[in-house]
């Protein structure tokens, strides 16, 4: 990849829960990116056949490391497992549902490669990148929790809840995740702010799903996010 330090290795952590329809395709897209990389895929006790697909994918590619939870615990738990296994220089969180596209990796990696950032957030709400038009109240909820998170962390993010968070490995190796579900997003944000990391945002594309297509996050997770924002501001 032009401009990228070819001696650096990516660890791409992919939490999976009931993503049978998209798992093989997201792995294909990640594998198509021109980097040295490992794919750390954590199946969080899927019941739809995702585990069988993952087992086959791991046989077919020697850079896939697959891990399996015996019971469903949530995205935070899957990331905790995945982060504990990374061996690369840079860690990328990648959802398995095709909402986020690995073609955005060059933009996400650039601030770290240039020595400007320790952590990069991919924002769905800045720049001219295309995105699917979906739910107004999801947008409002995201703005509310991002604003409150910013108040607690003194960061100025536009999209705290984004999946695309990229870290230097030494940063994520020094963070202990306690959240089990989607509270992991405000938890990670609070902890990188506490560590005074250099944080950048870059625009990303977004192809959001609706609930008929398997979207899992609900308004209850938005309420929970407010709790976690307060919790990880004042307590760990």
UniProtKB/TrEMBL annotation:
UniProt feature coiled coil, ranges: none
Signal peptide (UniProt feature, chain positions): none
Annotated Glycosyltransferase 2-like domain residues: 11-174
Sorted UniProt keywords: Transferase
InterPro entries: Glyco_trans_2-like, Glycosyltransferase_2, Nucleotide-diphossugar_trans
PANTHER family: RFBJ PROTEIN, UNDECAPRENYL-PHOSPHATE 4-DEOXY-4-FORMAMIDO-L-ARABINOSE TRANSFERASE-RELATED
Name under which the protein is recorded: Glycosyl transferase family 2
Lineage: Bacteria, Pseudomonadati, Thermodesulfobacteriota, Desulfobaccia, Desulfobaccales
């Amino acid at each position: 990849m032009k401009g990228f330090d070819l001696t650096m290795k990516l660890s791409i952590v992919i939490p999976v829960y009931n993503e049978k329809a998209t798992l093989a395709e997201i792995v294909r897209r990640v594998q198509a990116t021109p980097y040295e990389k490992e794919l750390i895929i954590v199946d969080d006790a899927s019941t739809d056949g995702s585990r069988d697909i993952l087992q086959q994918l791991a046989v077919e590619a020697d850079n896939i490391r697959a891990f399996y939870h015996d019971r469903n615990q949530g995205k935070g738990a899957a990331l905790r497992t995945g982060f504990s296994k990374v061996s690369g220089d840079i860690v990328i969180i990648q959802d398995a549902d095709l909402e986020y596209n690995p073609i955005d990796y060059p933009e996400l990696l650039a601030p770290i490669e240039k020595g400007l950032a320790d952590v990069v957030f991919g924002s769905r709400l800045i720049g001219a990148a295309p995105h699917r038009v979906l739910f107004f109240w999801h947008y409002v909820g995201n703005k509310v929790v991002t604003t409150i998170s910013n108040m607690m962390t003194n960061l100025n993010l536009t999209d705290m809840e984004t999946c695309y968070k990229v870290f230097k490995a030494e940063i994520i190796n020094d963070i202990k995740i306690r959240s089990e579900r989607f509270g992991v997003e405000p938890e990670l944000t609070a902890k990188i702010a506490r560590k005074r990391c250099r944080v950048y945002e870059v625009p990303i594309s977004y192809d959001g799903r609706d609930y008929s297509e398997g979207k899992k996050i609900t308004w209850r997770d938005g309420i929970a996010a407010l709790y976690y924002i307060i919790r990880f501001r004042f307590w760990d």
